[in-house]
Amino acid sequence: xxxxxxxxxxSRCSRLAARNRAVAMSERNRSIDGVSVPCFLYGTAWKEDDxxxxxxxxxxxxxxxxxxxxxxxxxxxxxxxxxxxxxxxxGLVTRDDLFLQTKFTFRDGQxxxxxYDPKAPIAVQVEQSFASSLQxxxxxxxxxxxxxxxxxxxxxxxxxxEAWRAMEALHASGRARLLGIxxxxxxxxxxxxxxxxxxxxxxQNRCYATRGWDRRIREFCVAHGIVYQGFSLxxxxxxxxxxxxxxxxxxxxxxxxxxxxxxxxxxxxxxxLTGTTNAEHMRTDLEAFDFQLEPEEVAQIESLAGP
Length: 307
Ligand SMILES: NC(=O)c1ccc[n+]([C@@H]2O[C@H](COP(=O)([O-])OP(=O)(O)OC[C@H]3O[C@@H](n4cnc5c(N)ncnc54)[C@H](OP(=O)(O)O)[C@@H]3O)[C@@H](O)[C@H]2O)c1
What we know:
disordered N terminus, alpha/beta, 8-stranded parallel beta barrel, binds NADP nicotinamide-adenine-dinucleotide phosphate, 12 helices, globular, two-stranded antiparallel ribbon
C-alpha cells in the first residue's frame, strides 16, 4: 500500500479511536438495545474444577460480565451457574447486576460431553443447548447468545444459517436478549449481516496486534452497530507487549503493560475479556478503568505491530 494511503488510514483510525475513547471512558458499561453490557468481561474457559471458585472471586473483585459456553471441552458452564447462584445468595449481586454470555458450539468444537442430540437437526441442537445453558446457569434469560464459530473457515454453510435462524427464534422469544458470533472472518461477518433478520450485536475474536488489533473487523463492527469483544489480548500479543514503545508507555503511566493493553482495548471501543486465575490480576485488570491514555498513545499502540 502507498505511504499516503497508510497514513490516511491511520489518521482515520486515530479519529475513530478518539471518538470511541469518549464512549469507552464515560463509564464501565454501555447500553445495547436496552441491555447493560460491561466493557470488561471475565472469561471462564479452561478453569475446570476451579470454575465456580474463580467466577465467584471475579464477581467479588468487581466483574459484572461473565463469558462462558455450553462446550464442556473448554468450559464448565454449570460451575459458572453455581458461582452466579452463590453470589446472588450471599447478597453480593442480583441477577440484574450481571451480564451473562454463553455460546452454541457445533459438534466439531465439542468433545463427547454434548449438550444436545448430535443426530437432531441443527435447529433442535440449538434449542437443546440453549435449554441446557439456562439450566446450568440457573436463569430464565441469557443476555448474549453467541455462535461459537461458523462451521467452516470460509463462507457460511447451511448449518450456520440453520443455527443462526434458531438463535433468531430464541431472540424473538425474549430468552436471548442479544446475539453474537465468534471466531469469524470479515467475509463471513459481511454475509451474516447481509442476510440476518436479527443482526449480531457482538463479534468475539482473538485479537492480534499484528493484524492492527483486528482493525478491519473492528471497522466493520463500528459501521454496523456491532460491539467487538477481544479475547487473548495478552496471550496473543506477547511480542507486542515486550516492544520498547509499550514498555515506555507503561512506565510513563506507572502501570503494567497488561493494564496498558486493556486500557487501549477499551479506548478503541472494544469490550475486553480477561481469563486470569489470579485475584491480584483481576483487581489490577479492572484498574484499566482508572487511568487514561493520550490519543497519540492509542494511535501508536494501534499501529505498533501491524497495518
Ligand atoms: N470464543 C472463543 O473461541 C474463545 C477462545 C478463547 C478464549 N475465549 C474467552 O476469552 C477469555 C480470555 O481468554 P484468554 O484466557 O486467552 O485471555 P488472556 O486474558 O489473554 O490470558 C490469560 C492468561 O494470561 C495470564 N496473565 C498474566 N498477567 C495477566 C493479567 N494481568 N491479567 C490477565 N491475565 C494475565 C494469565 O495468567 P494468570 O491466571 O496467572 O493471571 C493467563 O495464563 C476466555 O476465558 C474465554 O472466556 C473465547
